[in-house]
Specification:
single chain, alpha/beta
């Protein structure tokens, strides 16, 4: 068994040059983005080949660097406050030496990421509460010590599996039956043309922004050491 397996999701051939780990070509992007890939990989037992597991976007290296820039410091909760510079070797060293259950690949100040998300996605707390209630949890606004955005984390494989089976996959099944999530989420960037044509909308819906905050909630209620 290896120490670590990380998959990086890409959509176009030119994105391969930015990938550090195992490339995963996603030719059927859903509104859940890499969360659909995460579920598929866990259900195919890809995580069982390593002690630690992760699924990152092809933009991982550029995004964690970009979020240290002054522009992002105007949004301190989203900015990357980590003092470390990413290298694959550094991740291997930290995991092998310290055996953390979960490694966060960006550092954020403690806050309530669901309530804070309403500043950008107005209906997010309402949808988050409804979805988590339906899968058996009672979310309420509160501060989380550890925050994860963009699925930029690595977890022990059994923890990753438990997260997917107990929370992520059930949430997606509930969200499949919520057409109201196809509202305009308010995300200020343009939806790529191929997804506009595929989904018949010209904006980002709510799905990825709800799920982006789910692992923070999972770690909070399970009191996992980060």
């Amino acid at each position: 068994m290896t120490l670590l397996n990380i998959y990086q999701v890409y959509f176009k051939e030119e994105q391969l040059s930015s990938i550090d780990y195992i490339p995963y070509y996603n030719d059927d992007c859903t509104p859940y983005f890499e969360n659909s890939v995460i579920v598929d990989l866990i259900n195919s037992d890809a995580h069982r080949q390593s002690q630690y597991f992760g699924v990152l976007s092809h933009k991982f290296r550029s995004k964690i660097t970009e979020r240290k820039c002054d522009h992002w410091m105007n949004l301190p909760n989203f900015a990357n406050h980590s003092r470390s510079n990413f290298t694959p070797q550094q991740i291997d060293f930290v995991l092998d030496r310290f055996k953390f259950p979960v490694l966060n690949l960006m550092q954020h100040p403690s806050h309530d990421p669901i309530t804070y998300g309403a500043k950008f996605h107005r209906e997010l707390p309402k949808f988050f509460k409804e979805i988590t209630n339906k899968i058996g949890y009672e979310w309420k606004p509160e501060i989380f010590e550890n925050i994860f955005y963009s699925n930029y984390f690595i977890a022990k494989s059994h923890i990753y599996e438990h997260y997917v089976k107990s929370m992520l996959e059930p949430a997606i099944k509930i969200m499949d039956g919520m057409p109201e999530l196809w509202q305009n989420s308010g995300y200020p960037f343009a939806l790529p043309d191929d997804l506009k044509n595929k989904w018949n909308v010209n904006f980002y819906p709510y799905h990825p922004f709800i799920l982006e905050r789910l692992f923070s909630y999972y770690c909070h209620i399970n009191e996992i050491k980060i």
